[in-house]
Amino acid sequence: MRTASVERNTKETQIKAELNLDGGEVCISTGIGFFDHMLTAFAVHGGFGLKLTVNGDLDVDTHHTVEDTGIVLGNAFKQALGDMSGIERYGSFFIPMDESLAQVSLDISNRPFLVFNADFKQERCGDYETCVTEEFWRAFAVNGGITLHINVLYGSNAHHEIEAIFKAVAHAMKIAVSKNVDGSVLSTKGVL
Q1: Which transformation does this protein catalyse, written as a reaction (predicted)?
Q2: How far apart are CA 85 and CA 185, in angstroms?
């Protein structure tokens, strides 16, 4: 079964996540309304079951909560994928969101890297600080062993740009984690 259960407890955040790559209930609570909306969109568009509870030091700001959630979610994907055999490995997707267009390409390779090209004109979406979007995806990529390229090609509304990113990553991940024909590791090395 392609599932994971991850807990992370620090002085800044307490996080519990349950992930099912093949679907299931989606229930998200981070204390940041916009972030809940983005993570729900990610799970729904990826076809993932995701139960996520986060308690963070929101009296400071949203940084620790968002970044640590990326750490836990990356770890959950890595755990659910095991040795990464039997998956398509690569995924790319474009998502238009009104005036914005996001493009994502990724490789579940055990070689984490993030390329992030987005310039948000608004500093906030509700209580969510838009600058932490890059921190979330870096933490996700590093802890998930994913090479992740995110490009917002154009846009003017940060809500639309960020939502397009989350949905594009979801669809690219859905492609990459889908089962391949023979269950092999998609690598000339035979291992990832």
Answers
A1: D-erythro-1-(imidazol-4-yl)glycerol 3-phosphate = 3-(imidazol-4-yl)-2-oxopropyl phosphate + H2O
A2: 4
Interval 58-112: pLDDT, tens = 999 999 999 999 999 999 999 999 999 899 999 999 999 999 999 999 999 999 9
Ranges assigned E (strand) in the chain: 3-9, 13-20, 26-29, 49-56, 90-97, 100-108, 113-117, 124-125, 128-129, 146-154
What ranges do the domains of the chain cover?
A: 3-177
In whole angstroms, what is the distance from residue 143 CA to residue 137 CA? 10
Are 97 and 163 a contacting pair, CB within 8 Å? yes
pLDDT of residue 182: 86
Q: Give the pLDDT confidence of 117-126 residue by residue, as tens digits.
A: 999 999 999 9
